[in-house]
């Protein structure tokens, strides 16, 4: 069964080649060219397996669409297409609930690899979502895809959720930056840089730590990576 993708892109010079390449790689693609048109698909958004959203559109941004989807509680994988890799755009995309971003111009093979990686991770999480992980004052409900800290549900993006799951599963052990990147993205070279991971870690600390500048849970092990410390209630 072919995966369905909703593509929000208004660049005519890019659209035809992108649709052709995605179709050749086994994806069914539905194209929308405006934020308004994308919003009209929200009632049936669950029918799609992945969203590809251009950031800059004539009537708004892809961030707006992403935020609406996440407010519906949908954890559909979302990739942003951006003409700029400036950190402010990366942060805005991740904060709005995006899973990944690709900077134009990009190679179609790179985009397809990112798509497969996201779909594979989604499939894996859907197969293993029948348990609860509890360590100290943190509880992860895999069935509901939610994290509770001292009994209160955290408002996490899907990327932050995956990161905390990985770290908590390796509680009290150092998880290297490379292994995190390989686990959360695809081990396909340099498609994701360290800056993106640093953004995830910083945002996650702001949500889980009493004092983010002096973290108790998410510890940096300089030169290696990160470690999740079990902190009792």
From TrEMBL:
It comes from the Bacteria. Pfam families: Response_reg, Trans_reg_C. Residues 4-119 form the Response regulatory domain. GO terms for molecular function: phosphorelay response regulator activity; transcription cis-regulatory region binding. The keyword Phosphoprotein applies. May play the central regulatory role in sporulation. It may be an element of the effector pathway responsible for the activation of sporulation genes in response to nutritional stress. Spo0A may act in concert with spo0H (a sigma factor) to control the expression of some genes that are critical to the sporulation process. This is Stage 0 sporulation protein A homolog.
């Amino acid at each position: 069964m072919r995966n369905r993708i909703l593509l929000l892109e208004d660049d005519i010079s890019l659209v035809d080649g992108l649709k052709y390449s995605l179709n050749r790689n086994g994806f069914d693609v539905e194209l929308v060219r405006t934020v308004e048109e994308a919003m009209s698909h929200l009632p049936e958004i669950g029918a799609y397996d992945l969203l590809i959203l251009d950031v800059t559109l004539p009537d708004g941004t892809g961030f707006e669409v992403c935020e609406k989807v996440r407010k519906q509680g949908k954890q559909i994988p979302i990739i942003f297409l951006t003409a700029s890799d400036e950190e402010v755009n990366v942060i805005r995309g991740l904060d709005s609930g995006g899973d990944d971003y690709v900077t134009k111009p990009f190679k179609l093979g790179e985009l397809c690899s990112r798509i497969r990686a996201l779909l594979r991770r989604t499939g894996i999480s859907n197969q293993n979502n029948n348990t609860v992980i509890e360590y100290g004052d943190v509880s992860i409900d895999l069935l509901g895809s939610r994290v509770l800290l001292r009994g209160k549900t955290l408002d996490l993006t899907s990327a932050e959720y995956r990161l905390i799951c990985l770290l908590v599963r390796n509680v009290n052990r150092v998880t290297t930056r490379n292994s995190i990147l390989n686990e959360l993205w695809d081990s396909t070279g340099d498609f994701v840089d360290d800056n993106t991971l640093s953004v995830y870690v910083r945002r996650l600390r702001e949500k889980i730590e009493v004092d983010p500048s002096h973290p108790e849970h998410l510890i940096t092990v300089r030169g290696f990576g990160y470690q999740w410390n079990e902190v009792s209630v």
